[in-house]
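Ticket reopened. Same input as before:
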Amino acid sequence: MRAANYEAPRSVEDAVALLVTSQGRGHVFAGGTDLLVSLQNGRVEAELLVDVKRIERMMRIEHTDGVFRIGAAMCAARLAEHAELQSAWPGIVEAAELIGSTQIQGRASLGGNLCNASPAADSVPALLAAAARCVVAGPDGEREVPVQEIPIGPGKTSLRPGEIIVEFLVPDPQPRSADAYLRMIPRSEMDIAIVGAAANISLDGDGRCTAARVFLAAVAPTVCEVPAAAEALVGRAIDVSVLAEVAEAARAASSPIDDHRGTVAYRTRVAGVLAGRATAIARDRALARG
Amino acid sequence: MAMRHVSTTINSEPAEFLCEPGATLLEVLRDQLGLTGTKEGCSTGDCGACSVLLDGRVICSCLVLAAEVEGAVVETIEGLAPAGTLHPLQQQFLVDAALQCGICTPGILIAAKALLDRNPNPSETEVRFWLAGNLCRCTGYDKIVRAVMQTAAEMAQHAEPEGARP
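Engineering reply: fixed in the latest deploy. New output:
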């Protein structure tokens, strides 16, 4: 038996109320691509599944007043279908498009990817590189939180009982800025990251970096920021030697584990390679934005 | 545990059933509705054998709860061919022998149909990546990919208006 009860509320308030009355034995159910597997194999037990996919605010994407508001339960495939988001934040979109398979992308959500809190989650580094925020609803109302504050460990978030991530807020990119996400997996598709790297780069009129954010997946218990990469980049033209410093910074920031997908040594080395390449791609995209 | 009553549309026909809250769409399709064309390969969303279209999107029915499809539109492999006529994909799979044991085939056909519905002229790379969630143990994928590409080419030819070709 996977779940004793299933409800599909139509509002955030109703969803929060259901979670509160379930007293910790209820679970938010969006795409279900992690949750249903965990219920099947007993890793998670749920008395109540709160299906949030009938809550319009959590399933839509809007671009107004310079902000993309992305419903936390919306499937990843719809990110790619949103031309404005694809144009503004190609790194976020390409990250979401790497999650699982076509079938998984038809269900998996940014909210689920974040709250499942795998260190290898693909969408998280790209969202953090964009300095995304999220709206969290709970028994005490709504609050806006940097996405960076949500994952606190493998499988663990900072969300309090009864809280749901409702939507993600991604601002329009700065002028002459662009992002990118790259991932290394054992197979050519449909696998979990050995390393993921996101970069968001801003340039001035002379092509010098004015701001940078670099994040890594799968090389630490949670997504990993690389502030030393940003320090190496800001104020400089991003040439081969600067990219080498970015790679070194990424290697230094990584603290991966050995597992069947990769060794510490391999992951550390690949973290450097991908951080450098993602930075170069973001730089080229930013240059193209003139 | 309360059974749930679900009204939905399956292969263009209204359908109703009772299900447990935790029952998956795959379980209900096969065990209650007798639609056994959709296959169970892994029940973890990894193999794609259970692929169906839900509101036009290809998904794994093992990861959808039957209770969710209230008011939705479901298309399974049984609905691919209107009575008496194979879908061009099915026809091409036969001509090109793009199956052996056939267990992956319903899922592959559903996923391929979803691709061609969106992208009538996919490249080989696009076909391979789109079908990455559908595992086949028998064919090595080559004939499958060729059959999908050939179907796309032939559907494009038939879609050309009269006199468009020299």
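The CA atoms of residues 95 and 122 of chain A lie 6 Å apart. Chain A has a mean pLDDT of 96. Please confirm and we'll close it.
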